[in-house]
Amino acid sequence: MKRNLYLNIQNKEEALSGFLKAMSDIHPDKERIPVIKSLGRTTAEAVFARYSSPSYNSCAMDGIGVISSHTKEASEYHPVELVYETDYVDVDTGDRILPPYDAVIMAEDLIETENGYRIIAPTHPFAHVRSVGEDVVAKEMVLPSHHTIRAIDIGVLLASGIREIQVIKKPVVGIIPTGDEMIEYTEEPEDGKIIETNSWMFENLVAENGGIGRRYPIVRDDPEKIRKAVLKALDECDIVLINAGSSAGRDDYTVHVLRELGEVLTHGVAVKPGKPVILSRIKDKPVIGLPGYPVSSYLTFTEFVVPVMNLYLQKGGRDYRTVQAKLSKTLMSSLKYEEYVRVKLGKVDGELIASPLERGAGASMSLVRADGFLVIPQNREGIMAHECVNVKLLIDMKSVEKTLVLIGSHDLILDVINDMMKGEQKDVRLSSTHVGSLSGLIALKKKEAHLAPSHLLNEADGSYNEAIVREMFQGEKMAIIKGVRRRQGLIVKKGNPMKIHSVSDIGPDVRYVNRQRGAGTRVLFDYLLKQAGILPEDIQGYEHEETTHMSVAVAVQKGNADTGMGIYSSARALDLDFVDIAFEEYDFVTYASWIELPFVQEFLRVLKSDGFKERLEALGGYSWEETGDIFYL
To answer: Is residue 62 part of a domain?
Structure first.
């Protein structure tokens, strides 16, 4: 089959508006359910009380029920004696108050006597008495239509005699995963096969947004099988989602099948990631084709599926809270697309900082790590560093306020520290962005991070970090928090088949994977190349860059490279061999005045803890002689 071509790519707003207009005749169904099962549901009509609540005059306090007219003469100077069953009866909270008694005096306001009680203040009719219908009056409206039912609402509904309630029926969303390469999560993956996860994300996104997800088995890349799956889902569901097969590949059949079965309104939307979206109407039901990459599928679900679900639920769209933040690095973009960029957030020196995460459509971990996302408009080529941007929040702002922001060199210990900081229930979290040591120090200088992890070698004397900090932060009182000493070297395949024992062994036939410019590991590698008399252009793969030690290790593991420089713990994590090159210092740079910040103090506490040292030992390749010590410059 020929490739699909995006002949009429629409901008997002036009595509969504046209799709919702085509679906404007959708009318939500209703259903009657028990009140006790109605939390979070939306009322389909106004609800009116069957009973008054309370349904009788009831005592609001423990004490005595009295005839209020018998107390009007009471004062401190002229106490009134009350006689049992002549002037009062004993009552507890919730008891009925029957004539002639019409008020309650609290137990703590009574003076006990041999014959009853003495009072020194009068009361008035219905004092401390809950009147009939004080809370709800029979026939009164308890809840309006289109109201989302809360826990407190359920109590009031039951008290007013409502046992069942008419609610808007949840739309059933059919989810059809496709692809020859896809396998179920219960199967063991092998090369050429991918665990299918998007459909399970969709099922839970549907539930989060008030629907019922119905996931179907994986359908292979076969037009007839896709057609049958779509028709079955249309018979059983209100909305149908087809995942993958919506792009321009030779085996992407979804759009052809949907055109045969109904009307395709849109194929291709000018958003990045997420262009291969299909919006169609079949048998008067919405059928949406979503791209296969996880980030693309998530974003297009929120932008196109949720609004359609809201037609069935009769509610507005998701109300993202938007905050303004300063962008930590320049983002370039294409004029062809509106681009969604995931970011981490943290407040540094009183200013909210947004640090971009991986931008690839397949970088699903960027969604897990993201605190929010910013949108680069279709008519802009990018956003410059330090520019103020609007960020749509995905988390509570309180979490952002308690975030320790690290920008700089990568190490596995950052995840360990974050885990330990959160695990101690201190309500503090660590946000780390991996841009390399030098870029981290630049971010610190611009006060876009609290700490800059660094391991920059001074070639003159073999020391780490101090020389570059003195040079970059002249006139500033700085602090270096000593981190760890770690084994740095060449990561190679198990058994070291290329017989690599030093940088000198990286010949023309060895494929190398490098770290990004400014990374301390790259600085060390360049230094070693200079010592060995090897030019960077003689290294095959010198321009092949990764941003973390684990990315380098997995490149070697999967055969994308024969070797790369990284830390021992990364090699050990993936059961690779390791050639020792250096035992370097990995530290944390900050302003001296920031040492006393609460989350920096919590960071220091973790660094110095026995638990952290135990975790380091388990990772391997670290020592901690000075860990947590502070040196001021």
So the answer is: yes
